[in-house]
Write a structure and sequence with these properties.
The protein has eleven helices and eleven strands. The mean pLDDT is about 95. It is of the alpha/beta class and about 325 residues long. The two termini are about 25 Å apart. The longest helix has 21 residues. Bound molecules: flavin-adenine dinucleotide. Flavin-adenine dinucleotide binds next to β5, α5 and α6.
């Protein structure tokens, strides 16, 4: 079922969903089931599966020479989605990224998804490879999420690359895009970033999932701005509790967000990592209760392979 239908059927009740990473190459799918099982009692209508672009590693040969090889650490987004649908009978939402794919490969992947009965996709530009200082599009691939979105919209209208046959099968994907309440880090300002978000919505995005945030006033300002500018699709808050003191540095550095002073001071006053975890969970419980009161359609958690903090929060909130 489409995410927009799940939200509509909930009649204003806030839903719960989460995101997982596919298994590291060489790990079994059971590692993913172990991360999902503890959360299934809360009836998530859908589970997102991220996509990781390939990176380069250097392989040493016996003669000492180094060879640069492309390597994808977590290669199985589509198969992980299929395994989730098969085992849990819930919707799985693959993230589709521009980086690492030609347009042809993207189109073929979308056809696979359609045949697997997948109704939703979250379209993204994707992160830069760790070995690159900024995002480099794949030759013959899409450069921005809006280009990838347009591709999916074309297929929803029966228009495929290189073929404009009148009787082409129309796909029917419900399409999500990313939004950044605190601005995407490459954007010169919030206004420019918002302009491109609006472009994605005008092209046909059906829902927005936000970058994580720790200050609900940022989410509220973002939603208010969207509504004031004619964006009326669901805006799903993306959430992650703070679980370790090092995240005071790593989360702002990686995700370009602000940690409110009250939270950072509370973390700095902790005497152990266990205490930090408790502070982070309590903060997120409070955030979630407020978001429900604000009418957030879904609380969407970035679990990062560890379901336990999310489980504690959802138990306290619903
Ligand atoms: P875009 O919308 O393309 O925007 C990228 C930048 O370019 C922004 O600064 C924007 O303002 C600007 N811009 C947009 N369109 C144009 C244009 N036409 N011309 C000029 N400038 C433009 N990354 C992964 O690799 N895998 C994942 O699975 C993944 N999942 C994510 C899920 C969520 C909910 C979020 C919020 C992020 C996720 N990311 C993931 C990270 C994401 O790929 C990065 O933040 C990436 O840097 C930007 O992606 P985007 O889709 O927002 O890009």
């Amino acid at each position: 079922m489409k995410i927009t239908e799940h939200i509509k059927n909930a009649n204003g009740k806030t839903l719960f969903s989460f995101e997982i990473l596919p298994p590291i190459k060489g790990q079994s799918i059971q590692s993913i089931f172990n991360a999902i099982d503890p959360l299934m009692e809360f009836n998530p209508p859908f589970i997102d599966v991220t996509y990781l672009r390939e990176d380069y590693i250097y392989k040493q040969h016996p003669n000492g020479l180094l060879e640069k090889v492309a390597y994808r650490k977590r290669p199985s987004t589509v198969a992980t989605c299929a395994a989730i649908i098969n085992k849990y009978k819930v919707d799985a939402v693959p993230h589709l990224i521009c980086g690492g794919f030609t347009k042809e490969e993207t189109e073929n992947a979308l056809i696979d998804l359609q045949f697997l009965g997948i109704d939703n996709v979250l379209v993204l530009r994707g992160d830069a490879r760790k070995s690159d200082s900024s995002f480099i599009p794949t030759p013959g691939g899409h450069a921005y999420a809006s280009d990838l979105l347009q591709h999916v919209v074309n297929m929803n209208n029966g228009r495929y690359l290189h073929e404009d046959m009148e009787n082409s099968e129309r796909t029917d994907f419900c399409i999500g895009v990313a939004g950044y309440p605190e601005k995407h880090f490459e954007s010169p300002n919030l206004d420019t970033d918002f302009k491109y978000l609006k472009m994605k919505v005008d092209l046909g995005a059906d829902f927005i999932v936000t970058q994580m945030f720790f200050d609900n006033s940022k989410y509220k300002a973002f939603v208010d701005r969207c509504r004031a500018n004619g964006i009326h699709i669901p805006i799903i808050p993306g959430l992650k509790p703070l679980t370790g003191s090092k995240q005071l540095v790593s989360l702002p550095k990686t995700f370009h967000l602000d940690i409110p002073l009250e939270l950072s001071e509370a973390v700095l006053a902790c005497k152990s990592e266990q205490e930090v975890r408790e502070v982070g969970i309590e903060w997120m419980i409070h955030q979630c209760k407020e978001l429900i009161a604000m009418g957030a359609p879904v609380l969407h958690f970035y679990t990062m392979g560890n379901p336990n903090p999310t489980k504690r929060i959802i138990q306290a909130v619903f």
